[in-house]
Amino acid sequence: MMRNEGKTADKPASAERSDGIRHGDPSYRRAVFALFATGLASFNAIYCTQALMPALSEYFDATPATAAWTVSAATGMLALAILPASILSERFGRGRVIAISTLLAITVGTALPFAPSIEWIIAGRALQGLAIAGVPATAMAWLADEISGLDLPRAMGQYIAGTTLGGLLSRLIPAGVLEFADWRWALGANMMFAAACSVFAVLLLPAQRRFTPKRLTVRGEWRAVTSHLRTPALLGLFLIAFLLMGAFVSLYDYLGYRLIEEFDFSPGLAGSIFLLYLGGTFSSGWAGRSAAKHGRPRILLTGVGACLASLPLIAIPTIATTVLGTGLFTMGFFASHSVASGWVGALASRDRAEATGTYLTAYYLGSSVLGVVSGVIMHDLGWGAMIAFLGILTAATGLIGAAVARSTA
Question: What pLDDT, in 10s, does the model give residues 18-37?
Answer without folding.
Answer: 566 777 677 888 888 888 88
